[in-house]
Amino acid sequence: MSKTKGLIKTMNDDKYYSRARPVDVRFHGVCYYCGCEAESKFEDFIPQKIDIEFYLQTKEACPFAIVQCCKECHYFLMNCRSAVIKDRKKYINKSIKRKYGRALNIYERWSEDEFEDLSDSIIKSIIAGMKIGKESDDRIQFSGYEYEIDGTIHHKNEIEVKIYQVFGEEFDDFRKALQYASKSYRINITVLKQRLIDNQIDFDKAIKTYHAELEQKLLEKQIDKLSKEFALKHKQNKNFVKSALSAYIQINPLLSMPQNLDLIYQERIKKLTTTESKIIKPS
Ligand SMILES: [Zn+2]
Question: Cα(2) to centroid of ligand 1, in Å?
């Protein structure tokens, strides 16, 4: 084992690799992973040279390819030990998201038509963030290109085109879907984004649960307000009226709140007028 190791170390490692050449000349000099300008001194060796021995010994599937790559992707890949091109692309996308997360957020969050009331300096910094965010997004979306290794054509990275649905409207871009949903369904974009994270990027579900909770809050507010007024008018305990009203709403969902309160009055208070006390006590 140590003998093999020593042997490999003394050889020129590059001999194990074949260069992946873009089929379309327009991609010569383009980073396979992100579409930026590639630099010859930052090529990506798959697998990493330190893993050559492992792949030679185990005969694990491995392309032994040299792929055109930009300086930053090369830097990102320094800690990626996968020899699967698709996984290396995923690793780069994660790294871009991590490094440019703030700019990506600005790009997702803002559109030019919202600049109206902002100061010039704020607009300037948002535009700068949007520019970096868009570049980062383009890099993430870049799906590579067809390339040839020793006469065999390899197809480009099949990045699945994800379609985002917002109640029947289709978008092939998360940002467009997010901005459309935020405007159409009147949800703050940051709040909506968090809801999407909580709901596995299901727009319909995120919007529905948000509105349902909003409705519930409004309902509770209204119950509280009407119960307070009713309790004061009929000299009742407010908390009890509140729980009675909530129960009546459940039983008589077709009646309005004032109608339910009227029913409470008829059934629970008026009948007691002949008794000693009109106060309803919780049972
Ligand atoms: Zn790159």
Answer: 36
- CA–centroid distance, residue 106 to ligand 1 (Å): 22
Could you tell me the distance, in angstroms and rounded to a whole number, from the CA of residue 54 to the centre of ligand 1?
26
Q: How far apart are CA 95 and CA 69, in angstroms?
A: 15
CA dist 163 to 17, 50, 114, 123, 155, Å? 37, 39, 25, 31, 22
Cα–Cα distance, 211 to 128 (Å, whole number): 34
- Cα(175)–Cα(107) distance, rounded to whole angstroms? 8
Tokens of 185: 């369904």
Instruction: Look up residue 134 and give its amino acid.
Output: K
Q: How far is the CA of 197 from the centre of ligand 1 (A)?
A: 27
The pTM of this model reads 0.69
Burial class (CB in 10 A: 0-12, 13-18, 19+), 98: exposed
Using the mean position of ligand 1's atoms as its centre, give its distance from the Cα of residue 249 in Å: 60
Strands (E), 83-188: 147-149, 152-154, 164-166, 169-171
**DSSP codes, 245-268:** HHHHHHH-TTS-HHHHHHHHIIII
Residue 191: how many other CB atoms lie within 10 Å: 12
Model confidence pLDDT, tens digit, residues 233-273:
999 999 999 999 999 999 999 999 999 999 999 988 887 66
Rounded to an integer, the average pLDDT of 133-141 is 96
Query: Could you give the angle at the alpha carbon of 121 between the alpha carbons of 120 and 126, nearest 5°?
Result: 95
Which residues make up the environment of ion ligand 1, defined by Cβ < 5 Å? Answer: 31, 33-34, 36, 70, 73
- Distance (Å) from CA 3 to ligand 1 centroid: 37
